[in-house]
């Protein structure tokens, strides 16, 4: 798959096939990919928990804040829920700054999942204390985000928009989810004076 195709296919998927498990080896491979991405000061403060055990997967799903505006996660039917999660942690013994590293690592994980025929969705709308207790995460880790993973059941398409058009995604009558994206000429700016 060409890199451009991989990037445009890598969407936030929120409905997954319950009949397609995410292999533990794939979870390890995705975390390994994240080990190779750039890190601020090369401190590498990110750590990960791969969650594929059914009771823990169900518990982590219950700690996603489904009604949070930034989450936009529907009340997914049990048979459409993620089959695994990667919980991204920041090791406070190494650094207290994770914003540079976390986005790069999360996108790399999702690109790797897409390349392997899976999909996912990153979310920061979480009951962090619930997750901490369920997974017995020590206090010197901050929970940065959860990446849900599985075989996507959704068809997601990109719609190019311009100007002040809404960027809110929506599902049409055919159950295709549309994700509006601004066009290149709206985001690639030039401030030099014309002669």
Question: Descriptors for this entry?
Answer:
single chain, 195 residues, alpha+beta, NADH Oxidase, putative fmn-dependent nitroreductase like fold, four-stranded antiparallel sheet, three-stranded mixed sheet, 6 helices, 29% helix, globular
Overall geometry = globular
Overall average pLDDT: 93
Subunit arrangement of the protein: single chain
Low-pLDDT segments, ≥5 res: none
Count every beta strand, where a strand is a DSSP E run of 2 or more residues.
7
**Within the CATH hierarchy, at the fold level, what is the topology of the largest domain?**
NADH Oxidase
- CA-based gyration radius: 18 Å
The CATH homology group name of the largest domain:
NADH Oxidase
CATH class designation of the largest domain: Alpha Beta
Number of helices: 6
Which architecture name of the largest domain does CATH use?
Answer: 3-Layer(aba) Sandwich
Intertermini distance: 42 Å
Helix-strand sequence: HHEHEHEHEEEEH
Largest sheet: 4 strands, antiparallel
**How are the strands of the largest sheet arranged?**
1-2-4-3
Query: Structural class given helices, strands, pairing?
Result: alpha+beta
Strand content: 15-25%
Helix content: 25-40%
Number of domains: 2
